[in-house]
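Now for a specimen:

…
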Amino acid sequence: MAPRRKKIYEGKAKILYEGTEPGTLVQYFKDDATAFNAQKKAVIEGKGVLNNRLSEFFMNGLTNIGVPNHFIRRINMREQLIRQVEIVPLEVIVRNFAAGSLSKRLGLEEGTLLPRPIVEYSFKNDELGDPMVSEEYIIAFGWATQQDLDDIVSLALRVNDFLSGVFFGVGIKLIDFKIEIGRVWDNDFMRLIVADEISPDSCRLWDMKTGQKLDKDVFRRDLGDLTDAYTEVARRLGLMPANTTSLKPTAIN
């Protein structure tokens, strides 16, 4: 990393630095893995490299179909240049199949197909454990307006259509995922765009034939090597050589 850069924010998996151009930030992907609101922690060698490359792939794909997002370009193996946004303090969760907390809340077997994609929200606050919130809370506390929520749902469902299709094409079932949304201003006009990252850290991904988990549940539930799971996702998407079985620093272009 370049010396004397101004750190703007550090989260569990990424660091944001002041950008090289006005209105930009540099997003650095760490190898840190956390689960259960950071009660479980580890350093997973190579995870940051994989997530940087995978998030670039998905953000570029969204750009190509007209879904606005913060990604500008990848700088190196661990960093990308992004547009600076004002983050809406919500995690936007889209569920296609029952899993995780939804299965526990409703008593549904994991993997149950939902009647339609369901959009949920949690309040971004690590100290509170990112509690689920309703639209009523969001509007009452001024985190977003009803129009914002309509736009957020539209964005989230477009992302879901895109990701579901991409993963289906490589034999992976998109169980659920979460995204963050940012506000940007073009002169006096505010619009909402997809921000943060899209990677196996923020998705549940199951092999369509075997049900093998290819996401952070591997770490949460001690199901094997997390880097191997993420490498398999990158390999299927054509981002790594087809014969790659584990991450090598030279394997990702």
In short: Residues 37 and 129 are 6 Å apart (CA to CA). The chain has six helices and 14 strands. Residues 146-168 form the longest helix (23 residues). Confidence is low (pLDDT under 50) at residues 247-253.
